[in-house]
């Protein structure tokens, strides 16, 4: 009860004087938001490009090197006594 | 492809404008209370509002049924919190002229008070938004309300017009 009344008093105090909204706010928000959006699209595009480049590089390397082929053995058992 | 893109842009702009014209007043009022600026000279609050609305515009296509006002308010609060936390203690503004009604409170108490009482955000949501416990939110809110209604003697500058004679009994 006491708490509710106190909160009501604070609410009344906060509601007291509303500022006037300047007319250019909407245009500014669209400008800022559009910039954020463009930046995000650019970042996404760059990341996809990077991923693509990495995939291409890996493929080229793999075709060149054949990493799945077992390399020829460099060591042999010593051949003695014949 | 391009036509679809343009149509989407136009629809977003239309919807966003309708939202912004409806929400800007309330959001700007909240921002002005947060920054404790004079209602007629509030550059910081305007900047906060522009950023919050801009963020809402940028995420408009990914709202998925979420309330854009909620989103904008969340961003506004988070942005203010980040700025206040990082530059704390706030450089005392070199402007002596009458400030907003919350000028005597520290930024965190202002934030809790505005979210809880001005915006009517539930206690749990406020706690989650600010990364505090619910008890802490309640304590901060009560303390801020008490300080607002009974400014401590001596340290309180003119709090933008005397608070209304609130009949608040001590116990």
TrEMBL record, chain A:
The keyword Transmembrane applies. The chain crosses the membrane at residues 46-63. Keywords: Membrane, Transmembrane, Transmembrane helix. This is Uncharacterized protein.
Automatic annotation (TrEMBL), chain B:
SUPFAM superfamilies: Sigma3 and sigma4 domains of RNA polymerase sigma factors. Transmembrane segments: none annotated. Residues 152-163 have a biased composition (Low complexity). One of its GO terms (biological process) is DNA-templated transcription initiation. InterPro entries: RNA_pol_sigma70_r4 (IPR007630), RNA_pol_sigma_r3/r4-like (IPR013324), WH-like_DNA-bd_sf (IPR036388). Residues 152-171 are annotated as: Disordered. It holds the Pfam family Sigma70_r4. Coiled coil: none annotated. The keyword Transcription applies. Keywords: DNA-directed RNA polymerase, Transcription. One of its GO terms (molecular function) is DNA-binding transcription factor activity. Residues 102-148 form the RNA polymerase sigma-70 region domain. GO terms for cellular component: DNA-directed RNA polymerase complex. This is DNA-directed RNA polymerase sigma-70 factor. It comes from Streptomyces echinoruber.
